[in-house]
């Protein structure tokens, strides 16, 4: 009962006025061991841990938390690793408040703040990494079967890890010059430092996973070429990298770009630094259109690049915003303005074709739509203009069409996602599996990782049947 | 990392670079391009594949010094490495036997035109090529073009070589003289715009190869968007070649200047 009396731990944060000076300073600082152990005592080790039902990959939450309570942090990290390939990443970027923490006993039954599962997950993973004794998992005897991974985002990485553990000869092909997918080019370092991702990649290397950058499967070589090189099966984790625009007048004016372009220039190409050869547009007034994580990352990036007014323009209300709660909260601390129930309808450019103003319209909420969220309806005569010389469009992404377009016989939905047998992640081509955003459209890191693990388990069965049990010539 | 095996200075501003890239050499088709990055702080910038040698496993790019990134690339010497090189990118040129093809190239745009001229010729077309430059020093690949064309017309703005005048003058002469079934134009945006206006007048189907600003080259960022037939297209995956008569060249030209100030700052920083 005294467990319940303990206040939920607060994450230490860099002061807003300090952190907005750099793109590369992490906002959340982390918990001390004492704080983590105290927070862990709040967990009641429920007989029926509903929190686990809220986690898309069913991490054994009470088990890892009880290890923290005992002070066995490395033990806690080991529990996390049983299920999650990248706990330090998920502890930082999972929408916990909508997943595990939403289903915590404290929330569901006591109407109190949930156990800080995400913070504890991050703590255990960071502790292990910083301790320098990251355990390289035991690997099965090499079986000589070559498998290829297309795309090095969280989905491809988690797949690669599991397959390496099972003894396969794994090569990851990545189109860009960096490994990590959205974890590197999208999510900024103030939320997820590259060093955290790099440690995981290094770990995979130690497990024998090979990485080939600057290699676009379907362009540099085809799937058939790779088959000729001996690859027996493929995992497509090519993501949802195609940015959507709104197709409103003036949208191709200079100064208007997708969040992918904006974030890639800064996060992947380092354009926040003067030393980088890649240019970036800075502006006194910056508008970001959208209400998801990508929009929050873009608008907070704009603030860090020196914008005086960095604004979110979102057509629904704050309640409907798909962004993580923490990001919205941090954005507000940093002085981001939120213009909700507002929708752009036209961009006005100056004589040099550079955007100078956005014409917007006020919206009101009507009946719920297919997504269950109330549909925004334009209000007649409510138009006005906002001054801005940089506009970032963050209204969603579509599946990357490179693989669907280049692999014959691959079944694709009308949205461009690859069709797979659910729970097996196997596509219409038996030796091709797929998961993450290329199957789900834009989703989350943890779901992408979960798919990778599921695909690995099923591909292992498939390959064992086909090549290993029958001792067929390879 | 891709090793530079050969380098030739065409002029003070234009350099030919032959670089090891065996897979790209094998996979590339006329019209494809690559994206390169020089150094850990380097920018991703696109260059058309001007030729390839499958046996040697090399590709050729021809680079004009413009700002920081092209200059850094041109400064690399034989034996040094390009940090990152990815490709082949973009849709290849659609090459058929159509009869007579008029190919026009301006400035460094002559380089990407070369493999296309070769391919048209190989497909059995009569190929007439018009190449143009401001002056003799800036003219490239004249001999190669002559070798692969049925006829070559050379134009310079100042008359220092070939004939004095614009590329469109040479083209119009051909169009007036004989039936042209198809046109392709590669060069500065303003040149392509006028070539397009010319062939529109004569109703000759024309393709133009666009050089929009790019970052990833895989359809991920949308920096390269252009308006074709009233619709937004991504040059890197939907192009780089489009029906010239449907391209909004004015928008395209304004977008090429979208980072002008920032690019100049980068160049100043690099030089000082
Ligand atoms: C800005 C931003 C912020 C986000 N914030 C969060 C968050 O806070 N929490 C959360 O859970 N989710 C977040 N997401 C979503 C999450 O990042 C994605 O759901 C996740 O990254 C999907 O993983 P993936 O492995 O399927 O694909 P990706 O991470 O997209 O990786 C795909 C990789 O495949 C490569 N590729 C594509 N085609 C080929 C090819 N033919 N050959 C070789 N390589 C190829 C791409 O270059 C890319 O590197 C965010 C997304 C963005 C863009
Ligand atoms: C498909 C394609 C093929 C090309 N082929 C060739 C070629 O064969 N030879 C050649 O010399 N040039 C080619 N270019 C143009 C070349 O990419 C640019 O000249 C180069 O990027 C300039 O970079 P910079 O840093 O040196 O100059 P900057 O000073 O940064 O820019 C000079 C001008 O180049 C353009 N530019 C700048 N950055 C980019 C970028 N990332 N992508 C595209 N254009 C940019 C802009 O219009 C800019 O104003 C091609 C471009 C495209 C899109
Ligand atoms: S992976 Fe995400 S959802 Fe699962 S326990 Fe960790 S933070 Fe919660
Ligand atoms: S529901 Fe909450 S209290 Fe119960 S085991 Fe999970 S985290 Fe602990
Ligand atoms: S260069 Fe990024 S989409 Fe074309
Ligand atoms: Mg440049």
Automatic annotation (TrEMBL), chain B:
Pfam families in the cross-refs: DHODB_Fe-S_bind
Binding residues for FAD: 62-64
GO terms of biological process kind: pyrimidine nucleotide biosynthetic process
Tagged with keyword Flavoprotein: yes
Span of domain FAD-binding FR-type: 1-95
Entry's cofactor comment: Binds 1 FAD per subunit.
Keyword terms, alphabetized: 2Fe-2S, FAD, Flavoprotein, Iron, Iron-sulfur, Metal-binding
Cofactor(s) required for function per UniProt: FAD; [2Fe-2S] cluster
CDD domains attached to this UniProt entry: DHOD_e_trans_like1
Record keyword Iron present: yes
InterPro entries documented for this protein: Cyt_c3_hydrogenase_gsu (IPR012165), Dihydroorotate_DH_Fe-S-bd (IPR019480), FAD-bd_FR_type (IPR017927), FNR_nucleotide-bd (IPR039261), PyrK_electron_transfer (IPR050353), Riboflavin_synthase-like_b-brl (IPR017938)
Top-level taxonomic group: Bacteria
Record: residues binding [2Fe-2S] cluster: 221, 224, 236
Name of the protein described by the UniProt record: Ferredoxin-NADP reductase
